[in-house]
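Subject: Predicted fold for VWA domain-containing protein, 675 residues

User T.R. writes:
Posting the sequence so we have a shared reference for the thread.
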Amino acid sequence: MTTNTILLLLLSLVIAGGLSYFQYFFKAKSKSNVIFLLAFLRFLAIFGLLLLLINPIITKNALEVTKTPLAVVVDNSSSITALKSDKKVVELYQKIISNPAIREKFEIQSYQFDADFKPSDKFDFKGNQTNLDEAAKNLKSINKNLIFPTVVITDGNQTTGNDYVYRFDPVNKVYPLVVGDTTTFLDLKINQLNVNKYAFHKNKFPVEVFLQYAGDKPINADFTIAQGNSIVAREKVSFSPSKKTAVVNLLLPADKVGLQVFKASVSSNTKEKNSYNNIKNFAVEIIDQKSVIAIVSSVNHPDIAALKRSIESNAQRKVILVKPNEINLLQDASVLILYQPTAAFKTVFDNNKAAGRNTFIITGNNTDFNFLNQQQNNLIFKMSGQREDYLSEFDSHFNLFAVDNLGFENFPPLQNLFGTITTSGNVSVLLSSKIRNVATNAPLLAFAENQGKRSAFLLGENSWKWRLQSHIDNQSFEKYDVFVDKIIQFLASSSTKKSLVVTHESFYNSGEEIIINSQYFNKNYEFDEKARLTISVTNTATKQSKNYDLLKGNNSFSVNLDGLTAGKYNFTVKELNSNTSYSSHFEILDFDIEKQFVNPDVLKLKQLALQTNGKAFFEDQADDLINTLLESKEYKSIEKNSTTKTPIIDWVWLLILITVLLTTEWFVRKYNGLL
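User M.O. replies:
I've generated the structure tokens; pasting them so everyone works from the same file.
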């Protein structure tokens, strides 16, 4: 409180006392107890009003000390346990945070990381993944714009995320405290295995395997891939101190349909400290996509031979040539290509109404368009007898399936009868027609999808010239053949809409996220946000079942099945309001990525320290780390003088008190007849 304020308070006392005296004692004839009471009440009221005007404030000065943060980040992944360093990590952590000098100099912040990053001072070392990059990203945001050191207690073996070496803020020093046995042991390891998740039946699928060796003498290793008790591939691999890695490329036969599980392993005659990383299981879903495509035609034309070659460029397709009267040959066909249909095709159309096969109709100069109008309602033809050449124009907005523009505008014209072609219903146009660069606004290549049945229309003959032109442009038939295959793939796929759609993988690796997504559609095929979805998961070996609710997300429902052990599982997703269900299976392969290591990654951690101008320490150098932190002069506490100003009186309560005093004075005067 300042001197001026004190003087004003004294003056207020004098003024309040003077006014009270003048009011009640200066001219008073008698000085009773009531007069003294009234004078006292008036004194307090006037003094209170003057206090409101002065509003005296007490100023306090306090010295605040802000310590530099010290982030102590602990690796909580299961690789710490695998390297038998879990107790050592806890011991090192406690040694750092309990050091009195460290606690006096720094504000200690304790964190843990595995796949995620969070504040913690308790560690269980059960994380299935290691993501040090996540720790770097979070520390940047937590201590933004601060200069602070970071101690990372870890083995440095990261299994997911970006390379952590360059992810920490280079302004802030990082001091890795390396745990784990750094002694080099002989170790063979399957470092990485690349394989497609799917392969086609009776084909061969590639497997690429990267092998790694740690040791100081030459050895010969045996690499095998087994399925069950059978060895399906074997290869000898040699390593030496100068040859630490090897790549094995194999082609395996896809001779069984369904989910096929394989085991890749590498071994030698020398005993290893860690043999878990010598084995890696993988699975491939073998798909039987073999389909029969029937080309039905009553005429001979080069288009038919060109179509057959394009379609059969995919080994999973087989083309049969059928006359319109050979209906019995269509039993195995999944797609019908009807080339220039006429009235002779009536039995084919009638038969297909019951069979429900998807069709690809190609028209030309010999087509009976009146008959075609009777057999389908996607396109309406009003044709003359005059022939016309039609050029094509590519529609980039076509979205039924992905297709590239092969330069259709420069392809030779197709020939068809002149007339008017209009679309009806759900028709998507990929190529529209032009006559000598004049747009007709009519389709040339179009696709329709109605009530679960798909159709394609190519309105013109001589498409064999397109295949030839594509070869001239690209020195290969490949691009055109892929284009034709995409048309066949669209027609060969089932388009039946389902009310319950479930998305999942056929197999997962242990430690991976096991997420199953689902969508439920109402009768109008609109996403139903009010659906109630549950999933029942059963282990086929133990017969134990678990039930989960699927949680609503952005236009889908999902469930995370983390925690399931390796094995085969059957599951059923059910919508409770409609009792609609979907059943399938998946397999979890036994693979723990955190058990793949025999040594800490010292090189990476030293690179991290160098990148941030810090220093790496080993587990027996914890005292050196503590001394380095204490001796560093760049981490100093900041002292701030904090000034706080606090009013002596709460004006609200003082105003209430003044009101009470004046009211009391009035009642006393009234009662004693002094008004």
